[in-house]
Every structure is written in C-alpha cells, then in structure tokens.
Amino acid sequence: MEGIEPGILVLLALAGLAAGFVDAVVGGGGLIQLPALLLGLPGASPVQLLATNKLGSICGTTVSSITYFRRVRPDLRTAFPLAGAAFIGSLGGASVAFWFSKEMFNPIILAVLLVVGGYTLARPTMGQLQRLRFGRVGKRHLAVAVVIGLLVGSYDGALGPGTGSFFVFALVSALGYGFLEASAKAKIANLATNLAALVVFVPAGAVLWEVGLVMGACNIVGGYLGARVAVARGSRFVRLFFVLVVSAFVLVIGWETLQQFS
C-alpha cells in the first residue's frame, strides 16, 4: 500500500486506544479496531486488515493480561488449558483467513457487531456473581474450557472482532465465572489467539507494520487503563461506552453493506 495519510493514522491511533481500553474491560476491542481499519484503509486486502488488527491487539492484550494477573490472580489451572486450546484453534482459523474476499468482509463484520452488541444490551448484569459449574478444576470443567478455547480461538484466527467478549460470555454462561475473573482468563486466552494468528500472518507478509505498531502503542495505553478501571470500578460505564461505539459502527458498516448489495 502507499503511505498512509497522517489524518487517517491519527484516527486509527485513537481507535487503537479506545479498542485497548474497551477490550481490557469487557472484551470486543476488535469491534472498534477492525471496522476502523476497514473504513480507514479501503485499499487493503481482508487478510492485511486482519493481520494488522492482530499486531495492534496483541500489544494491548499483553499489558492487560499482566495487569489482570497481578491484581486478580486468576486460577491458571483453567487459564492455561483454555489458552493452549485457543492457540491451536487460532492457528487453524488464521490459515483459512486468506480465503476471505472483500465482498464477504462487511456482512460478516456487521453480523458480529449486531450479535455481540445485542447480547451486551440484553444481559447487562451477566457475571455479577460467581457460581462455578462442574467444580473449579474438575475434568468436566477443564473439558468445557478446552472446547471454548478451540471454538473461540478458531473464530479469532479467521476473523476476530468480539473474541474477548465471546470468551467472557462463554466462561460466564458455560462455567459460571464472575465477570472479573472471566475477563482475566479471557485476556490470557486472547493473548494466545493473537500470537497464534501472527505466527501465520507475519511470515506471509500480511501485516501493515506502520499502522499496526502505531495502533499497538495506543492499545498498550488503553489496555493498561482499561484493566485498572475494570478492577477498580467494574464495567457499567464501559459497557455503555462499548454499546455506543458498536452502535455507531453498525450504522456505518450497515450503510456500506447496503450500498454493496444495492
């Protein structure tokens, strides 16, 4: 691609900051970052957008994972099997990402935006109390965690937006975790899926490094701040912020999708 206009780069940097903050608290930062890349870099291929999004995201998830670990101390007996399965799933998903066409991209992103945004609205109090199912580290508990890791990891490698939210929702709904510990485990698993995808994308030359590093730096700041807010204040304010941002992208991407098929 040709050089990125400074104004576009600034807007993408702001998207990276917001994505890191939201992803650290409630998950779904890719719902901000990937549509922003889609709108800001219309000449990029789908796999370039996915790869660049992963580079930006891994910076934020690394910092937020460390912050959560230090402040929440999540149980690694579940987090590590979850992350290992997610890594394997993401490797497979990233391998099929090259098959996506530009025509497929907008409708898929729009569908994910609608599902995750709608689910967030419908379940505003989900995960407020922790009621673990199958025990904390029993065989059934770990088996469900591995299945979650494989399924969500495969999705993240192939597409990605909303992965953090899917991890959180799955851990809360299927295993009964409270929101805060689910978020901590989700960050560790999301770090694994981002790393696995980059293992595929970097050797293929798909990453737009200038954009990805700028967004990554902003993601670090957002991820650190978001993780601290999540631990200190909970997620009510950020959920509202998340829904508002997702709604804005639904309008923009929805309009582009209508034009695409009109």
From TrEMBL:
InterPro entries reported in the protein's UniProt record: TM_pro_TauE-like, TSUP
Membrane topology listed for this record: Multi-pass membrane protein
Keyword field contains Membrane: yes
Subcellular location: Cell membrane
Pfam family of the protein (one): TauE
Keywords on record: Cell membrane, Membrane, Transmembrane, Transmembrane helix, Transport
Transmembrane region(s): 48-68, 80-99, 105-122, 142-160, 166-183, 195-225, 237-258
GO cellular component, one term: plasma membrane
Family: Belongs to the 4-toluene sulfonate uptake permease (TSUP) (TC 2.A.102) family.
Stated name of the protein: Probable membrane transporter protein
Organism, scientific name: Ornithinimicrobium pratense
Origin organism lineage: Bacteria, Bacillati, Actinomycetota, Actinomycetes, Micrococcales
